[in-house]
Amino acid sequence: MQLGLIGLGKMGGNMRERIRRAGHTVIGYDRNPDVSDVGSLAELVERLDGSPRTVWVMVPAGGATQSVVDELAELLSPGDTVVDGGNSRWTDDEKHAAELGAKGIGFVDAGVSGGVWGLQNGYALMVGGDEEHVQRLQPIFEALKPEGPYGYVHAGKVGAGHFSKMVHNGIEYAMMQAYAEGWELLEKVDSVTSVREVFRSWQEGTVIRSWLLDLAVNALDEDEHLAKLRGYAEDSGEGRWTVEAAIDHAVPLPAITASLFTRFASRQDDSPQMKMIAALRNQFGGHAVEATE
Amino acid sequence: MQLGLIGLGKMGGNMRERIRRAGHTVIGYDRNPDVSDVGSLAELVERLDGSPRTVWVMVPAGGATQSVVDELAELLSPGDTVVDGGNSRWTDDEKHAAELGAKGIGFVDAGVSGGVWGLQNGYALMVGGDEEHVQRLQPIFEALKPEGPYGYVHAGKVGAGHFSKMVHNGIEYAMMQAYAEGWELLEKVDSVTSVREVFRSWQEGTVIRSWLLDLAVNALDEDEHLAKLRGYAEDSGEGRWTVEAAIDHAVPLPAITASLFTRFASRQDDSPQMKMIAALRNQFGGHAVEATE
Amino acid sequence: MQLGLIGLGKMGGNMRERIRRAGHTVIGYDRNPDVSDVGSLAELVERLDGSPRTVWVMVPAGGATQSVVDELAELLSPGDTVVDGGNSRWTDDEKHAAELGAKGIGFVDAGVSGGVWGLQNGYALMVGGDEEHVQRLQPIFEALKPEGPYGYVHAGKVGAGHFSKMVHNGIEYAMMQAYAEGWELLEKVDSVTSVREVFRSWQEGTVIRSWLLDLAVNALDEDEHLAKLRGYAEDSGEGRWTVEAAIDHAVPLPAITASLFTRFASRQDDSPQMKMIAALRNQFGGHAVEATE
Amino acid sequence: MQLGLIGLGKMGGNMRERIRRAGHTVIGYDRNPDVSDVGSLAELVERLDGSPRTVWVMVPAGGATQSVVDELAELLSPGDTVVDGGNSRWTDDEKHAAELGAKGIGFVDAGVSGGVWGLQNGYALMVGGDEEHVQRLQPIFEALKPEGPYGYVHAGKVGAGHFSKMVHNGIEYAMMQAYAEGWELLEKVDSVTSVREVFRSWQEGTVIRSWLLDLAVNALDEDEHLAKLRGYAEDSGEGRWTVEAAIDHAVPLPAITASLFTRFASRQDDSPQMKMIAALRNQFGGHAVEATE
After folding, report:
1. ipTM for the complex shown
2. I want to staple A219 with a disulfide (CB 3.0 to 4.6 A). Which of A234, A261, C93, D279 is the partner?
């Protein structure tokens, strides 16, 4: 089938390639003319034959996605379908579905996992929306997903795809934190000769074997003590939203939240709160404080 | 080769079977005569031919392991080797090595992972000790470990095996907590039709695919909403030791520790600390309290 | 001076009393005619002499406050001032200020602390808004605040009052949790004869002496082991908002967030996430699970 | 009465002064001859008249305390009493009591709070030991404690004093963390004009008023944004022991533990665990990493 794909960055570019390899026609648009197949969104919509048309949006969550949805609401026709495959907050999905639905345009939200490995291994897809809209996209979902029985789910109503992907990322935060904590502790112990070899051994037969563990071994093979890296980690929004959703539902998420907070702390050159701790210790105990340089 | 194996419970019994399948001779001893090959530890040692003899101890950590080590120190001869494959605290290993070493008996500590799946898939082994003692055990380690390049590591000096296994379990706690938190949050959201199917889809193509995730799907297939289970979890000691080791080394372990604390809380019928919170809220705000029945 | 006061519940009723004791005129309105001085909001506004009028809103945050603000926007005149002294989210303040400002009506937000002790001890006030509006209210703030140099601050622009009060409550959560954790641990130890007497002794000379500690001793005097209480605690919204604000600003709040999560957990009859932990332990280790009754 | 006092550092020196002001005789010993009243422990014991003698040990916990106790076991006589007022781990107390008890010497453990303010305000005392030994020390306890009904407790058996003091310090960690988190969050918000003034206002009428809050205001008066301090905090051992005791008793301590871990993290120039997070993000997502300089 034919698909319009908006956003050809690290993710979108590889997805175009994977869908084409499956024999579908993809017309891609990106603001960067070097990678774009067409010169404008309007041209992309024109180039899509007949009706119904299907357009996949793969641009940054928030304002960028909103403005593409606004444009598509003008350019598309009743019966067409828009898929938001970006990392949008699930609360945006209902708004987009309503805005497009008012014009008779269908909306599907798709959480996409797979990162730089997706072109080769396939992208896991968590999809939300009405059955009729989801059904229309099925050939594209089949092209993108990994082979085998897993890697795709119609998770529920509009928003369920992004919500599931968001929780996936929250879990990911805590799993990464789990390995990271274990790694730091093992590195501190004199009796262990090579932490890297311990990690490598865990890849089979253990309870904690996983793809993330395989990646950790790859990373340690490149730089055994990660000496070239700073202990600095961004967060992409989905960890934050997971905690906010948990607060809305009064669900305690101690491990996921701890994993988010260590990232926040990793980006501080000096910790304001620990200045206050140092100040208080000095006040009551006369404990020495360290001065900034 | 020939191995004496002490402790033929859930783990030891299956290990005897797997080692025998690899063509080795195992003489097993257990206090339970139904499963034991010999009537006593002394008989087990006598039945092992010639020298050097090798005895694998697979009994509960702490007192049980200590008393077996004490007996073996009397029964074995210089040049023999003892392996402690139980879940001993790494700090016990040096004591056992010294006690046996004083008699010329070698000591190796082995952290063993694999649970009820080990007979079929192999047991992951993290081993600590001197190269000469570890070398002597190599055929047994080969028999126990999974096929393929992973699942075995000589982690370092005496204690390094149990330390690595302990950290493995700490990581395991936080990974389980990660999936558990995500599952609870997804179950709270109306838009998601089936959390089980979302979990199932994650088994391929996602960043969080893992063996624990596969097990979670198994569990949800047996009981989709885990309605038959109480939210009650024991802890086996290794999570506690991981946190204690982290404290010794001043390593922050927020996610692993949170995972330990949720287990503690799960075993309380009512939370004493939350009684105090309720009491304080009542004191300053006149907030209603709930009475015990 | 003259003040209209809307909302005469546990807080508002006592505040009316304290302001009157200071010699001011308070006309109070409440939906409950037993405590109300007037029959309607319109009547309250009419009864306030001349201009400018000042109306203090002390109703539940959210919808109730919004609808009172909407009504006041219609009833009041340019130059009048509205104070929101409820537990509104700071993000509502700018909206209310804009809505009223469009009619020339001033807006001040006031975070109020003091609970059931406020009538006697005074209410601590954290106030946000333009200097001219805050100035107009000064006699009322003086009447409400405790004697002495503390207990009142003009914290900043519109929203700063509620934001400061919200952080106050976040800190309160973690302080309560601190005492609660310590209390539970002491209660577990055989060597300590009376935890209540230990708490009592801490009221002077220690680093942790505080008003909350005094309240804890009061509570233990009423019920030494809090045996009559359930370990169940509501949360009022401000703890949640504190964590959300921290996430917005990428500030790690591990202790405050932990304190919020223990409250969430205290309200669950059984923990869904711990069911998953139990299920996973059973899957990989054959560990026994507890069935629901 | 007459007291031998060993250790005349920041704490011991001031305690000698406070006890003398109350009219008692103190013979102090310190390795530093500039502050010592006698030249050796032996001389100190000799100088104490008759029997029973009472010696207060105020030296660093661990090896230093142990060696003083060992010496005193040789120098003192049956019927004498030793008080350990240092920050010893409660588990040491039973050992010291047994060692001294074997010679007929009594032992009392005393947790002492008050820091640099103790000389002026008095020291809070949490005391463990047999009633007969505690009774003998009563005049000294009276001299040290603050005026008024609080600040002293005979908490229970040997060890109960240090255990109570340890929990006191654990609570202190989490209270400090509570204020520190709130301070950092307030400092991030543009609408709040002066966080220092907000803190100052909290000193009366609020739920969170406390001595630590007063100290925080002092610190902010000296350096409004704590710009001169590094966010670096040592920990003295008692926070660690609190968490270890909690683990022994399966008590969840999320806020206190979080407060300990933020201190650990504050002392790391770069976070090893966050290097692993950065490495994993790079592996699966191609996310940029920051290189060490």
Report:
1. 0.96
2. D279
